[in-house]
């Protein structure tokens, strides 16, 4: 249920590796030629400038303003870390930028301001208005944040929201609606204890009142204790929540018999006894970040009837404003709302609450390694990776803005808008997420043939932490342990086998006997067969062959044919397979592309092309993707009769005859695989006329190899491969230069494959 906690060094490495930080600016127009540059900059750029000068509304037409949000902080209330300053807040603000982008395709400039003076901050944000389509204020401490936001809301004509106030209120409001429904309690009868009287807590409390909570049923605490009428230090935002109840001093007193605890303060201030003292079916939202008021484990261990939520992604019920801000701004920007009003916030809260009750898509279950998430005590609110959030919440917000009369650009075709929203979700990382999560469901034993390598060991660490595999390492025990220690890896009691160690003589003997039986009439004498087992790639393959492991990740290599020989000799091909082949997956923005054969067959015959295509189609289906196959060469449907053109034409004909349901088309040039307009116009019969290809089969190894290498080098595209197709059991060979991430991806692919063997 819970993921392994994040290591400090991993978090630091993540931020510092490669280009420091997490976001960058990328051009969205062509910039290749001198003409492009003349259009992008002087002289061409003067034309949109003049158009905007004539009518300022044109700024939305000719610039990025309409999709650009400023995430602005002064670093005074950064998560629960307090006033740590503007520079120290930057990783959080870049993080918000990243989330805006991946969840709602909104571009962000994060702006960290070196001021604690509200007037200066207000003035600064005001003068920034021309640049941005919206402003997300973040981690600005109370009470200053209230006035700052209020004044800016009045003065700016673009949507503005202090996320810690309203984002948090919306999400926790949705979670509260659902939690109360589950425990069958009425909000107006519930007793609330709120720890924190800052930006988030006050805003949540106000929304709870709107939802029906009674102010006399709320006890609020700040750093100095109970917010009570007798106190003289309360500011005007907190004062309305002051109670006149007597006999309650501490949080522990207040928690007795309470129905709901809301924590938006600091970590570790609630004890198990306090949780135990609450009313039946207690609702506990311990939302301080990164450390909640009470840990998830402690709270659920304290009593069985609790509904527990935190702000963290590694436990059930993540009540975090990430579920709101990307989609609220998306909806507000798309209708060009002049603000974000109460109606829009309430619409977002209700849409979220409703979404949690709908059946959960498979991709969400997979992402959380759950079989069947459904509305209940451990699922009161949708998960952040739910692809329906963008359509559900953004549409609700856009509609509400139109109802409020603050939408300057009302939407008329909701169906088209919904499709447009769905397209905004990047597809490039979905496949890998799916594969990794499928691997996590039933992790397999993966033997790493070349474990004396830091990159491999780092990948093993990640794969183990993520729960993808049970690793077995081959190599010199001392050497591996030294690398583990030097780099502070924590592999616990992972199994390490040295194939040269006399201690493993029995296993070697057993494997040698089996190998000799297999190869005794194929060039090996008894001595050689046994000796060969000391070679790690052979030993690893034999572990899988004998059932001592489930899949092999073999060494980082330059020579592919040599590296797959042990697997072929020990494990062999799948039934009916004449030749193995290799596939690469390129993770593009438009979704994954599968390339074959990139690795094994230099110049395949028609029959071999047919087999390569069949093996590739089968592998693609394993990832739950319907293959749409283009048979590539230099000719289109008979326009040339060269050797490769004829080969691909004949292979297509055979495949179409053999597999009438297969979407396979050819022969064709590569651009015909994607340009559906061109295909419809010229070759309307093509099976790829409506939707382009996702599988590309090449006429020979050169073409395939050159193509994927060009794409990955010039397109900055992440790839996985080569994935060996056609073996009886999964063995995958790492290319020299594979990164840690690529190795982890490969492990996940091998595990998924092993699951279906
Ligand atoms: N899960 C989520 O989505 C979100 C979580 N949060 C979390 O909520 C917390 C507060 O954030 P925010 O409102 O922006 O910050 P603020 O600085 O505006 O508010 C912090 C509040 O916590 C109070 N506080 C501090 N220590 C204690 C204590 N020991 N007992 C009771 N109250 C205490 C402060 O009291 P005083 O007023 O006396 O200083 C203040 O009222 C942070 O941990 C943040 O990470 C925030 C937004 C979203
Ligand atoms: C989630 C968030 O915004 C916070 O903890 O401050
Ligand atoms: Mg925040």
Features of the shown structure:
binds pyruvic acid; Rossmann fold; binds NADPH dihydro-nicotinamide-adenine-dinucleotide phosphate; about 750 residues; oxidoreductase; six-stranded mixed beta sheet; binds magnesium ion; 5 domains; globular
- What kind of sheet is the major sheet? 6 strands, mixed
**CATH architecture heading of the largest domain:** 3-Layer(aba) Sandwich
- Summing up helix and strand content along with how strands pair, one would put the structural category as alpha/beta
CATH class division of the largest domain: Alpha Beta
CATH topology of the largest domain: Rossmann fold
Bound molecules: NADPH dihydro-nicotinamide-adenine-dinucleotide phosphate, pyruvic acid, magnesium ion
Identify the quaternary structure here.
Answer: single chain
Q: How many β-strand stretches?
A: 21
Low-confidence stretches: none
Keywords: Multifunctional enzyme, Oxidoreductase
Organism: Flectobacillus rivi
Family: In the C-terminal section; belongs to the phosphate acetyltransferase and butyryltransferase family.
EC number: 1.1.1.40
């Amino acid at each position: 249920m819970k993921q392994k906690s994040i290591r400090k060094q991993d978090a630091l490495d993540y931020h510092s590796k490669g280009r420091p930080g997490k976001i960058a600016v990328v051009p969205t127009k062509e910039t290749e030629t001198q003409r492009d540059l003349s259009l992008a900059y002087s002289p061409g750029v003067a034309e949109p400038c003049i158009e905007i000068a004539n009518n300022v509304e044109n700024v939305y037409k000719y610039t990025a303003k309409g999709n650009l949000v400023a995430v602005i902080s002064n670093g005074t209330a950064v998560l629960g870390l307090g006033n740590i300053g503007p520079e120290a807040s930057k990783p959080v603000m870049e993080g918000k930028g990243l989330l805006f982008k991946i969840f709602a395709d909104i571009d962000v400039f994060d702006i960290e301001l070196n001021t604690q003076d509200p007037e200066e901050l207000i003035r600064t944000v005001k003068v920034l208005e021309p640049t941005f389509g919206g402003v997300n204020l973040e981690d600005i401490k109370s009470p200053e944040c209230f006035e700052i936001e209020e004044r800016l809301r009045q003065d700016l004509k673009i949507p503005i929201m202090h996320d810690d106030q309203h984002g948090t209120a919306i999400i926790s409001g949705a979670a509260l609606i659902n939690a109360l429904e589950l425990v069958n309690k009425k909000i107006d009868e519930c007793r609330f204890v709120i720890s924190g009287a800052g930006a988030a807590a006050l805003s949540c409390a106000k929304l709870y009142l709107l939802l029906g909570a009674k102010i006399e049923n709320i006890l609020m605490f700040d750093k100095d204790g109970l917010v009570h009428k007798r106190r003289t230090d309360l500011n005007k935002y907190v004062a309305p929540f002051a109670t006149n109840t007597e006999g309650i001093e501490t949080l522990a007193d207040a928690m007795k018999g309470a129905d709901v605890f809301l924590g938006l303060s600091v970590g570790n201030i609630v004890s198990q006894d306090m949780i135990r003292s609450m009313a039946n079916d207690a609702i506990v939202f311990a939302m301080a970040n990164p450390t909640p008021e009470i840990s998830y484990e402690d709270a659920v261990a304290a009593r069985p009837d609790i509904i527990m939520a935190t702000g963290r992604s590694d436990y059930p019920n993540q009540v975090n404003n990430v579920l709101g801000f990307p989609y609220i701004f998306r909806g507000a920007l798309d209708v060009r709302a002049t603000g974000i009003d109460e109606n829009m916030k309430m619409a977002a809260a209700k849409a979220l609450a409703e979404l949690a009750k709908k059946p959960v898509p498979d991709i969400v279950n997979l992402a959380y390694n759950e079989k069947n998430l459904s509305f209940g005590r451990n699922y009161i609110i949708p998960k952040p990776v739910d692809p329906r959030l963008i359509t559900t919440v953004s549409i609700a917000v856009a509609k509400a803005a139109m109802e409020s009369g603050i939408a300057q650009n009302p939407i008329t075709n909701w169906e088209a808008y919904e499709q447009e929203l769905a397209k905004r979700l990047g597809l490039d990382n979905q496949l890998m997420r799916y594969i990794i999560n499928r691997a996590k469901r039933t992790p397999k034993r993966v033997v790493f043939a070349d474990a004396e390598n830091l990159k491999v060991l780092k990948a093993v660490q990640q794969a183990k932490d993520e729960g993808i595999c049970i690793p077995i390492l081959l190599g010199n025990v001392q050497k591996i342990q030294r690398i583990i220690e030097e780099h502070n890896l924590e592999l616990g009691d992972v199994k390490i086998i040295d194939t040269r160690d006399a201690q493993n003589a029995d296993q070697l003997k057993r494997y040698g006997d089996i190998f000799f039986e297999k190869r005794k009439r194929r060039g090996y004498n008894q001595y050689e067969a046994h000796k060969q087992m000391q070679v790690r790639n052979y030993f690893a393959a034999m572990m899988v062959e004998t059932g001592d492991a489930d899949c092999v990740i073999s060494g980082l290599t330059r020579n592919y044919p040599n590296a797959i020989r042990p697997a072929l000799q020990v494990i062999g091909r799948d039934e009916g397979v004449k030749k193995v082949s290799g596939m690469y997956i390129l993770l593009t923005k438009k979704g994954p592309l599968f390339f074959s054969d990139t690795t094994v067959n230099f110049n395949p015959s028609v029959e071999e092309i047919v087999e390569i295509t069949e093996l590739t189609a089968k592998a693609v289906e394993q990832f739950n993707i319907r293959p749409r196959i283009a048979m590539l060469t230099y000719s289109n449907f008979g326009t040339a009769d060269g050797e490769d053109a004829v080969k691909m034409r004949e292979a297509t004909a055979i495949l179409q005859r053999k597999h009438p349901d297969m979407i396979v088309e050819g022969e064709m040039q590569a651009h015909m695989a994607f340009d559906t307009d061109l295909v419809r116009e010229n070759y309307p019969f093509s099976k790829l006329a409506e939707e382009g290809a996702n599988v590309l089969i090449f006429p020979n190894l050169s073409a395939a190899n050159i193509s994927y290498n060009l794409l990955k080098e010039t397109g900055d595209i992440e790839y996985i491969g080569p994935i060996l197709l056609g073996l009886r059991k999964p063995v995958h060979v790492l290319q020299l230069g594979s990164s840690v991430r690529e190795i982890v991806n490969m492990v996940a692919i091998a595990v998924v494959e092993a699951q279906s063997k």
